[in-house]
Amino acid sequence: MSVRSGTRPEPAWRARLRALLRDTTLAGRPLEWYLSGWRLALILLVVMVIFPWLVGSTFVADAIAVGIYITLAVGLNIVVGYAGLLDLGYVAFFAIGSYAEATGTFGALQLNSVTGEVIHTPVLPFWPLLVIGALVAGIFGIVLGAPTLRLRGDYLAIVTLGFGEIVPILFNYFPFWFGNTGMSALPPADINLGGLTITFSDPLNRIPFYYVVLAVVALVILGSFSLRDSSLGRAWVAIREDETAAASSGVNLVRTKLLAFGLGATMGGLGGVLNGAYIGAISPNDFPFFVSITVLMMIVLGGIGSIWGVTLGAIILRFIDVDLLGRISQFVQANPVVNNPVSPLHFLSTVDFNQAKYLIYGIMLLLMILFRPQGIIPDVRRRRELKGIGAAVESTSAIGVLEREEAGAELAAVDTLDQTTYAGPGSDDIGRSGD
Amino acid sequence: MHTMALAAAGPAGFLNFLQAIKIGITAGAIYALVALGYTLVYGIIELINFAHGDVFMWGTQVTFVLITALGITSTIGGWQLVGVLALLVVAASVFCGVLNVTIERLAYRPLRRAPRLAPLIAAIAVSFILENIAELWRGPGQIAFPNLFPSTALININQTFVVEYRDVFIVVLALVIMFALSRFILGTKLGRAMRATAQDPEAAQLMGVNINTTIALTFLLGGALAGAGAVVFTVSTAGYVWFFTGFQFGLYAFTAAVLGGIGNVNGAVLGGFMIGIVEGLSIAYLPQGSILSTAVVFGVLVLVLVFRPTGFLGAQVPDKA
Amino acid sequence: MLELEGVNTYYGPTHALTDVSLTVNRGEIVALLGANAAGKTTTMKTIFGLVRPRSGTITFDGKRIDGHPTSDIVASGLALVPEARRIFSRMSVMENLQMGAYIRQPGPELDADLERVFTLFPRLKERTAQVGGTLSGGEQQMLAMGRALMTKPRLLCMDEPSMGLSPILVQTVFDIIQEIRAQGVTVFLVEQNAFMALNIADRGYVLQQGKIVLTDTGKNLLTNDLVRRAYLGG
Ligand SMILES: Nc1ncnc2c1ncn2[C@@H]1O[C@H](COP(=O)(O)OP(=O)(O)OP(=O)(O)O)[C@@H](O)[C@H]1O
Ligand SMILES: [Mg+2]
């Protein structure tokens, strides 16, 4: 038997970094003081505000895409990370937000009763839609959540997946939304401030829209932090850890879970509205299952429950997507070992690594779950919760503790197979036959 | 009694209905084969093996490769057809069975002690990996595939209700396999060990059952059934192979398993036929049925899970000792 | 025959067994007593590899069994009648007994053992086709014992076989335990019913909060002050 120590030894590089941050001082305070809590947030915000003036316009566009995904990741994190409910159909709320924006700014399909011509009338400008789209998505979140939340974790996951599939099909089905062709989605109208005109529709200058996205992202992150530290946040932790115990200590399960679903969906809707305005045209095909999984992937990669973690996860994945894979392709194709027609690796010259994106995502997701389920930046609070209690092994709370804590590590492999208490039925035996 | 209604709908209407049912039954037979894989695995380790549909998809790829290697490009008949089909079923079953066991060993077994959603996420990751390897290899499009069966109809009424050889083949093969599976589970020592493990893994171990072997065997069986289903699907219904087949097909089959009562072998078969028929009728009778049938099936999935998660034949009361 | 030495078992941070050492010799009936949560079931689970000890050794007939998979331990000649019976509730009585014979080859010897089980528990013979879950508590206990005997163990471990049974049935169970021993099977018995257990046991151990605090012959333990106060209500 191996001897287990409470904490693993810290890797040397991390110890050195920690020492550096502690010992270097700036204006009389150690660096680590600046890099914690609201001060870190403030520094990041300042950096992000000046960011567009430091880089080229493609980077600004990329940053907008990253920002939209951060909104989604932070929103899904409320559902998955805080409340411990696995939602595999999060794309539905993204789609609803996008379609709300498009329907408002562009208008749904109508026919001119005299000429039979196709027309469409804008209903609302972008700004109120930002709120309305989010609200509509939030309402759908609650409508979906209400009947499904009493399901056990894995069933809930599949039901949400089904919902995520149905929503784009319905947008496709109703001619109202121009079916499979999709529809235009317009950016915010120009704003006139005396002599100064701010325009959001110039594809070569995305900076104004960048600031809109930045504001939303900042708001969402801030909101997510305050939710985490609110009494609602503590209720989520409680149901994640032990639903029955939470209920018996007065937590209203239905309300608490619904709020997680609704708030998560609201953020998904917000991301959708931004997405519509940003890409300018949407169709049902933009909202496949892949999107839900990509967002889930961001969370698992960054650290379930950890706001900075999922933010980082979103940045990394989008970076891989929009930048890294292209660079890898170029690098490989330009490499003499591949370039040379007689080289055995020559076949790689035709491979476009962008196409391997989802394969790479899948491999990353699997490796993370197997080897580092707590993610790159683990949620501190979750780690603390786990210390000292043996809950990890028997926790039924869905994803609550994805991390395999050392707790109970000595249990023989199968010991826990039957320890997962059933929240519901479905345990019929595989051999039931003939009754 | 029914003649009035039939007369009202007209003979053509009734034949259309029969044809929709027939399409539903043949599709349902394949759903049933795949649903069995979900139900066996869920019965024993309570995991929704999300990658199962993609194991099925790899069965279709293997079928395609073999057919191409055999140089078959069009309809064949007689004993040659029987021989080719037998070869395909064996090869694809072995391939998918081994693939499924490998997945369990590498991705699920290390997570057996983890909270229950961790293996589910692992399964989703595996599904992604299987799908995208196929896409990289085969490209994103559907690759057309010859129909091997002679198109002579066994029954043909007004060109509306048509039963062909392949329809008979699908249903007969599926029924034979399901019967064999049922005999195996109910009548053999290994089958008994599987059931015992599903009911109480710890007690099963105390009888000397090696749980890891039993679970691996379950994945082997489930994979083999998916392989057989994949052959049937490819040679007789689909007419193409496609990397993305497994996603929707897998969800349909999973719906079937849930509808019948997940963990219940008979339920998976019943659910398979029911989903097939629901799909067949939706396509035939709903406006834009081929778009909407997907939403209908997913709607059934959602409704069943919400209102009757035990399915039709599932246990009413979970009786875990 | 069975020897535990310095066994420590943990559930996460909970230290469930502390330096447990005990011996069961061939042909004996040995009782393990202890209050609720003392660690009796944990001792059994540790022996059978259902929980792995962090340190210590467990030997059976001179061979180390700790760290081995449960199925191998069972195959080496140990059987457990688990706490709360754990029969396969959706299988028939016959199938439950067949599961007991899982590690064995069919043949005349197996048939003879089945007959022996039916002689010990005539009730089971009348109900071979009944589904396990519908048996009464007492019948389930008989089935669990019969099932364990079908593995043809040299050492039979039992975790509270009298739990939830009426006094008459408890007497029957203890009679049968003695009969099983008479047929050459060594018995290691966990019991709450200290009086009955010590009456039939050659030796006994007392477990308190995961530690063995006392060991002696059955007779001596019956008159031991600590035991009388703690378990015999006197
Ligand atoms: N799977 C588990 N996870 C965590 N703690 C456990 C687990 N199983 C048992 N324990 C704890 O270990 C201790 C010993 O339990 P055990 O079941 O061995 O007691 P016991 O002596 O058999 O009691 P009883 O007479 O009530 O059956 C108890 O405090 C119990 O709560
Ligand atoms: Mg006990």
Notes on the protein architecture:
The complex is a heterotrimer of chains A (435), B (321) and C (234). With 435 residues, chain A is mainly alpha-helical. In chain A, 59% of the residues lie in helices and 5% in strands. Chain A has 17 helices and eight strands. In chain A, strand 1 (25-26) and strand 2 form a beta hairpin. The two termini of chain A are 47 Å apart. By secondary structure, chain B is mostly helical. Helices cover 74% and strands 4% of the residues of chain B. Chain B has helices spanning 2-45, 52-69, 78-108, 117-138, 165-187, 189-199, 201-206, 211-238, 245-260, 265-285, 289-307; strands at residues 143-144, 153-157, 161-164, 240-241. In chain B, strands 1-4 form a two-stranded antiparallel sheet. A two-stranded antiparallel ribbon of chain B has the order 2-3. In chain B, helix 2 (52-69) packs parallel to helix 4 (117-138). The longest helix of chain B has 44 residues, at 2-45. Chain B is globular. Chain C is of the alpha/beta class. Chain C has two domains: 2-77 and 153-231, 3-Layer(aba) Sandwich (Rossmann fold); 87-152, no CATH class. Chain C contains ten helices and ten strands. In chain C, the strands form two sheets. A six-stranded mixed β-sheet of chain C has the order 6-7-8-3-9-10, with helices on both faces. In chain C, strands 2-1-4-5 form a four-stranded antiparallel β-sheet, covered by helices on one side. In chain C, helix 3 (93-100) runs parallel beside helix 6 and helix 4 (108-120) packs antiparallel against helix 6 (137-150). Chain C is globular, with a radius of gyration of 17 Å. In chain C, 48% of the residues are buried. Chains in contact: A-B, A-C, B-C. The interface between A and B is large, with 69 and 84 residues. The structure holds adenosine-5'-triphosphate (ATP) and magnesium ion (MG). Residues 40-41, 83, 159 of chain C line the site of magnesium ion (MG).
What is this structure's SSE topology?
The complex is a heterotrimer of chains A (435), B (321) and C (234).
Chain A: H1 12-23, E1 25-26, E2 29-30, H2 31-34, H3 37-54, H4 57-82, H5 91-105, E3 109-111, E4 118-120, H6 126-148, H7 153-173, E5 183-184, E6 191-193, E7 196-198, H8 207-229, H9 231-241, H10 243-248, H11 253-279, E8 281-282, H12 289-302, H13 307-334, H14 336-339, H15 357-371, H16 380-386, H17 391-394
Antiparallel strand pairs in A: 1-2, 3-4, 5-8, 6-7
Chain B: H1 2-45, H2 52-69, H3 78-108, H4 117-138, E1 143-144, E2 153-157, E3 161-164, H5 165-187, H6 189-199, H7 201-206, H8 211-238, E4 240-241, H9 245-260, H10 265-285, H11 289-307
Antiparallel strand pairs in B: 1-4, 2-3
Chain C: E1 2-11, E2 14-24, E3 29-34, H1 40-47, E4 55-60, E5 63-64, H2 70-75, E6 78-81, H3 93-100, H4 108-120, H5 122-126, H6 137-150, E7 155-159, H7 167-182, E8 186-191, H8 194-200, E9 203-208, E10 211-217, H9 218-223, H10 225-231
Parallel strand pairs in C: 3-8, 3-9, 6-7, 7-8
Antiparallel strand pairs in C: 1-2, 1-4, 4-5, 9-10
Helix pairs in contact in C: 3-6, 4-6
The structure holds adenosine-5'-triphosphate (ATP) and magnesium ion.
